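name: query_chain
kind: protein
chains: 1
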Amino acid sequence: MAKDSGKETPLMQQYNQIKGKYPGALLLFRVGDFYETFGEDAIKAAGILGIVLTKRANGAATHIELAGFPHHSLETYLPKLVRAGQRVAICDQLEDPKTTKTIVRRGVTELVTPGVAVSDNILQQKSNNYLASLYFEKNSIGIALIDISTGEFHTAQGNGAYIDKLLQSFSPSEVIFPKSRYHDFKELYGDRFYTYMLDEWPYSGDYAQETLLKHFGVKSLKGFGIDKLNLGIVAAGVALHYLNETEHRNLQHISAISRIEEDRYLWLDRYSVRNLELVGSSNENAHTLVEVLDQTCSPMGARLLRRWIVMPLKEIKPINDRLGVVEYLVNQDDLRDELQQNIRQIGDLERLISKIGLQKANPREVCQLKKALRAIEAIKKQCEETDNQPLKAIAEQLNPCSLMSEKIERELQPEPPIALIKGSVINTGISEELDRLRKIAFGGKGYLLEIQKREAEQTAIPSLKVAFNNVFGYYLEVTHAHRDKVPSDWIRKQTLVNAERYITPELKEYEEQILGAEEKIFALETQLYNDLLYSLTEYIKPIQLNAQLIAKLDVLLNFATISIKNYYVKPEINEGQIIDIKGGRHPVIEKHLPLGEEYITNDVYLDSESQQIIIITGPNMAGKSALLRQTGLIVLMAQMGCFVPAKQASIGLVDKIFTRVGASDNLSSGESTFMVEMNETASILNNLSDRSLILLDEIGRGTSTYDGISIAWAIAEYLHNNATARAKTLFATHYHELNELSNSHPRIKNFNVTVKEVGHQVIFLRKLVPGGSEHSFGIHVAKLAGMPPKVLARANEILKKLENERTGGEHIKESIRKVQKQAVQMQMFSIDDPVLVKIRDTLNNLDVNTLTPVEALMKLDEIQRLIKG
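structure:
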């Protein structure tokens, strides 16, 4: 593109000037009835949208690439650009081309980014669209999460792992942070998110805090409970700043900010959210928990359910409050059906009131708001009439906003069009001027007949008629027989053979009115509609509260519905340390079994005194992983306040669920399966608590057998011997040697998932029974997978040879027994032993955080020489 603006056309000069203000955005430039893109933007747009790329002349500055689409197709093309990761600046004409003789004034009216979008075509109905803002300081990070489409605004601060968990739970569509922290962000969170980096100045001084105070119109942030979150405040203030930068000024619907209280929610790190496949899965054909649990009636309910799934509670009272409502609703078929029917009438109230706050709601949506409020009135009455206290509490807080719905009823047509420009939006009787203009524009014949009738009576000319032609517009025609009765103020315009034509000041005025009536009607309707829209902003807070209450009611009704449908039972939640599940099932797998096949239920019992760790052995495909996952999901569902897939469940409150389930290569980041596995396991061991539930599947299989067994053994020992946290653990493994652990560790118990061998066939019984398993049946599984017979035959030969030579398990077991014996013997040595004292001092003086691998090996060699003497 030529840079000499003197050679460019005025249009392109204007384009370049505006484009310079939004360098990172794709600029949609309104020209007449089209949105045009130029240069690099045109090449991108043509590729993403599949539209024609052409060229246009740019004065003496050669040609420039051009691609465009009709302005009324914006809602079709904009989502495609945003989903392709583009920031899109929408540049509109700010004045009517008819009113100016120079180039039309233009300006950006909205900057749409993946995290800042309000269009229904861009947003996912059942998911939030969060923008995350991060602020880094030393070892702590502040985070703010804002959804402009719903008005939700949250903040928190903590270490990198906690922020990672929040990013995983809230799944923001876009993350913003300072440019100087690019490497910090990349190191902690990789390239999992769409990101945008900002200049440093919004993060400095008190700018962020002042932005928040000004927005909320308060003198202190104490009322929101965030005044001590210094980093969170900076992140939140910058998030608001970013919304302003993207041309979103009407933000009345962002009416509060809340602190994410870490103490309230069960800890699920990002590995567990992924491994348990709660709301998404890396496996293409996998089914998730949310798919099974979501039969909500409203988009708000669906979004809240997702939050409840990734953020279960860990306080008994609120959990039992939810369970109590679900239990009540399970037994109230008629009430449940009536409430759900009314909730379906409400639609997406949360996003609807946000559009009103943004002043972007169309007439049809405002009418929907009226219908929603009527449905809320019915729900309020239904909940008031129950004998359930939590439902009565919801009823007390619901506000049908009668004055608002009456105002909409009075001022809007019952079935208005979506677009204001189509007219017939405002009701009759609201504006005399509007009614008069409509009468003129759409009731023209009647108005003319009135004039004709009145003038005929006043002049006593019975044959008088009103007509129109293109020469002088509307006129009165009088036959020659009655021309002596024509009033003196009529102006003669034309004489015919049999008649004369006249105009009057009234007809001229009417003509001017009718010719400009439609334009005036649109302007007046627009003004009246905008006044209505502005007046509705007074009701944002009560309607947002209504939306939250309806979402909560919707989720609880949903829990009741699926509990009946899927035969779930009410769990008992207590302060104890026991997890006792009888007849547990996997909520997702049981819904996708082949027709006629029943899910094999299993009991799981864990406590801190007698059965803290269960080692589960058994072949592949026997159901070990399913058993681990179902235990985690049952606990999680119980602490969400949902009934669970079991015959009976007693859950001692869990505060953290850790999982290491399934292989998860991260090769794109240069990490092997084993490295990923060790990272995840290290995260578990470093964050244990006394009420943790740990689910470990096949630890150590990413390395050699001896290494794998050693690591798995050491981890099991560590979990058993941890004095401060006896975390309840299910440990599924291929290493049958680990069964030896139960001989020397009283709280470790062996179980296996049973199989039945009939001839050369293996039948998976999928039942958990006490005792260890000695066989893996790997060759049988290979046969089921369709492995060629030659390979299977050769594998059997090798297996028999190995079994005969006893070179495998027995040697390993003997080694393990020696290790155990040595461990006991070492405890018998006196600590006064000078060699041991020297080893202890050497180890104590090591700084493992700064030790290089080579230095570590040298230290080990030094210790080994000490032992050998």
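note: The CA atoms of residues 422 and 522 lie 8 Å apart.
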